[in-house]
Design goal:
four-stranded antiparallel β-sheet, five-stranded parallel β-sheet, 8 helices, 11 strands, alpha/beta
Length: 228
């Protein structure tokens, strides 16, 4: 069963990346991979729900990368994967802001169980907390319903915000005009499908450079595609 949860795997061993990807995708997760911390840096704006991070890599280590992630204000849950299994290493991982620590070699069943556990815990916490979605320099505060770009507030109507959230939270998925009407509009009478185009045109203008991320696939509908 497919989920909306996206996972980033960062490991310099191709075999491990591929095994994890295969099994996690079989569980319905959307998976991206990076062979190094440096490569993963370019992917961080993709709104991941979880990062599986190897500790011992060439270049920037997993611990240093996790420290970078946390200091940049990114609170995406992190599960460390490492051959280093001493108590000091585990304490280091947790002190940096890691959410779990799985020593190698590991069983796939264990990894999947830990992934489910961390996602369940953090999603539950997130639903009660002040959540934000970050796309580049655009931040959407899900609790206050405020959108900012470069720390400047953007005035959106309720419908425009609903459309933006629908597309951003389902990045890469195409929504027809009728889908958008059904999901983004309040039940307030008859609304023509062409009205969707008008609202999206206004939304694109208001969010500036991020307006180009809302793409019209002729004959299908609209999709949000953030070009990193």
């Amino acid at each position: 069963m497919e989920t909306n949860e996206k996972i980033l795997i960062v490991d310099d061993e191709a075999d491990i990346r591929e095994i994890l990807q295969f099994n996690l995708e079989n569980e319905g997760y959307k998976v991206d991979m990076a062979a190094s911390a440096e490569e993963a840096q370019a992917l961080l704006n993709n709104n991941y729900h979880l990062i599986l991070l190897d500790v011992m890599m060439g270049g920037m280590s997993g611990f240093k990368f996790a420290d970078y992630i946390r200091k940049s204000g990114n609170n995406t849950p992190i599960i460390f994967l490492t051959a280093k299994g001493t108590e000091n290493d585990m304490l280091t991982g947790f002190s940096i802001g890691g959410d779990d620590y799985i020593p190698k070699p590991f069983s796939i069943k264990e990894v999947i169980a830990r992934v489910r556990s961390v996602l369940k815990r953090t999603m539950k916490q997130g639903s009660a907390a002040n959540e934000t979605l970050t796309i580049g320099t655009m931040v959407i505060d899900l609790e206050s319903k405020i959108v900012t770009i470069d720390n400047n507030p953007i005035e959106l109507t309720k419908t425009e915000l609903n459309i933006l959230l629908l597309l951003v939270q389902n990045e890469g998925k195409i929504f027809s005009r009728s889908d958008i009407l059904a999901k983004a509009w309040d039940n307030d009478g008859i609304v023509l499908e062409r009205t969707v185009d008008v609202h999206i045109a206004r939304l694109r203008k208001k969010i500036g450079i991020y307006g180009d991320c809302i793409v019209n696939r002729t004959g299908y509908g609209y999709i949000f595609n953030y070009n990193k």
